[in-house]
Design brief:
408 residues, alpha/beta, Aspartate Aminotransferase, domain 1, Aspartate Aminotransferase, domain 2, 2 domains, four-stranded antiparallel beta sheet, 14 helices, 40% helix, 17% strand, globular, binds 4'-deoxy-4'-aminopyridoxal-5'-phosphate
């Protein structure tokens, strides 16, 4: 299929508006993506004609909603090539997924003086749960540092392992810099030490092909809202052998087989991890969003986004007094973090907004990364998705030039 950005844009009604008198250039896609009309209409249609609580037995609508929920699980399974659909657990997002893993697998594996390896580029969602677990258990966090060019130091990673290392948790792609980590290599090393490894795929699921069996990761998590689905839905993939061993995260309805006052027999996978009424409409929106992405083709999306990023880098590199970070386009997704020298990124963001350009500013929920790079005010970050255009990159670059004039 030919990649036709104008046709794609027609599917995203939110893009077709002016902000502060300028056409909207929505460049905050790493924070959340906009939703295609197919997803919006599927959700409306669900509530209009299909809604009932899932797993409630006898009646037609409940069975229909349950079928759609389970179909959504299978769509996710295929999308990441999991071996079984029951290895897909629906959560409300990456953050909940990582908390689930820290509170179950982490609780089970970590004891006093044990060690957990994370990296300096983790989003707080893949840092604070491990830090708090380590504090509870009197265990230790060890951190993979940066090497050159905003890549993690793989050699240093290998040296962090000791016989106390019990877990590794690492991001596939940095949300602040766009750096893609060669996670397959990281997974292999963890497994050489018999240590399970958790992958935060919040920033890769929408840009990179993910095959959990080829990667051989133990867990992988992501959020639906970053891949064109609704917010409030996410996924934990876990290998069957782990999901069978670890305890449930939350307790209540739907996650049981039988309950007496004295004890509970938990449900089989995956329901053991899905207590209470889940976001079954959100799960369905994720199915529709993944179908949408697959229809366009992730490879096509990736190739187009890479052209956009390279063009943006080329343009921004010609502006004196602008610093930009981690721009080796071969191993990064379409994120461009930058600063106007001497200006606060928040002021830059406000001026860009006046010109219709939406970027994120600040430390991007990666405070340790920002401190390690001496970027104590953070950065401004433009992040591109499949519906962004070269004209929008031009609008962004002109806005950066204007901001520079106004702030220097
Ligand atoms: N990890 C990374 C790398 C992220 O970019 C984000 C979202 N910014 C998260 C985790 C948390 O995702 P959510 O807020 O959807 O739970």
């Amino acid at each position: 299929m030919d990649f036709d950005v104008q046709k794609i844009r027609q599917d995203f009604p939110v893009l077709n508006q002016t902000i502060n008198g300028h056409p909207l250039a929505y460049l905050d896609n790493a924070a959340t993506t906009q939703k295609p009309i197919q997803v919006i209409e599927a959700v409306a249609d669900f509530y209009k004609y299909k809604n009932a609580n899932i797993h409630r037995g006898a009646h037609y609508l409940s069975n229909l909603a349950t079928d759609l929920y389970e179909q959504s699980r299978q769509t996710v399974q295929k999308y990441i090539n999991a071996a079984h659909d029951y290895e897909i657990i629906f959560t409300k997002g990456t953050t909940e997924g990582l908390n689930l893993i820290a509170n179950t697998l982490g609780e089970m594996l970590i004891h006093k003086d044990d060690e957990i390896i994370i990296s300096i580029m983790e989003h707080h969602a893949n840092l604070v749960p491990w830090q708090q677990l380590a504090m509870r258990k009197q265990a230790k966090l060890k951190v993979i540092p940066f090497a050159d060019d905003y890549q993690l130091d793989f050699e240093a990673y290998k040296k962090l392992f000791t016989d106390k290392t019990k877990l590794v948790a690492i991001t596939h792609v940095s949300n602040s810099l766009g750096t893609i980590n060669p996670i397959k290599d990281y997974i292999q090393v963890a497994h050489q030490h018999n240590v399970p490894i958790i992958i935060d795929a919040a920033q890769s699921i929408q840009h990179e092909k993910i095959d959990v069996q080829a990667l051989d990761c133990d867990f992988l998590v992501f959020s639906g809202h970053k891949i064109y689905a609704e917010t409030g839905i996410g996924v934990v993939y876990g290998k069957e052998k782990w999901l069978e061993q670890i305890p449930p995260y939350q307790f209540g309805g739907d996650m049981i087989k039988d309950v007496t006052i004295e004890k509970t027999i938990f449900a089989d996978l995956p329901l053991k991890f899905e207590a209470g009424t889940t976001n079954y409409v959100g799960a369905y929106s994720l199915k529709v969003a993944l179908d949408y992405v697959q229809n366009i083709g992730l490879e096509n999306i990736k190739a187009y986004e890479k052209k956009l990023l390279n063009y943006a880098i080329e343009q921004i590199s010609q502006i004196d007094g602008v610093e930009y970070y981690a721009t080796k386009a071969d191993n990064k997704i379409s994120v461009l973090s930058f600063n106007i020298k001497g200006a606060h990124p928040y002021d830059v963001g406000l001026i860009l907004d006046q010109m219709g350009v939406a970027v994120r500013t600040g430390k991007h929920c990666t405070h340790p990364l920002m401190y390690a790079l001496n970027l104590n005010n953070g950065t401004a970050r433009a992040s591109f998705a499949m519906y962004n255009t070269f004209d929008e990159v031009d609008q962004f670059i002109n806005a950066v030039k204007k901001a520079k004039q106004m702030l220097s």
